[in-house]
Design a protein that fits this description.
The chain is mostly beta strands. Helices cover 9% and strands 28% of the residues. It has one domain. The chain has two helices and five strands.
Amino acid sequence: MESLLSQNCIDVALGCIDVKVTNRELSGPLKYVVISGPSWQHVPPFKWSTSGLPDKHVGQPDTWQFGPVHHKWQPASGRAKEACSVS
């Protein structure tokens, strides 16, 4: 029996993963950690210059290999004020 995944397949990668994770330690003081993907810990980081894709990527870096950004919201005069640090 033919796999459903092999029917009408096209040779392109389409998709998106967006995950938000928190815990008690981070959510109480309004903190979170952000890492932009795709992941590169166990595979080489994505590089436009070696991808073979014809798509333009003006304004984007060639290599997608980002570290975590630690963020904390700080209320100030009734408005949210941001404090951000990059690791």
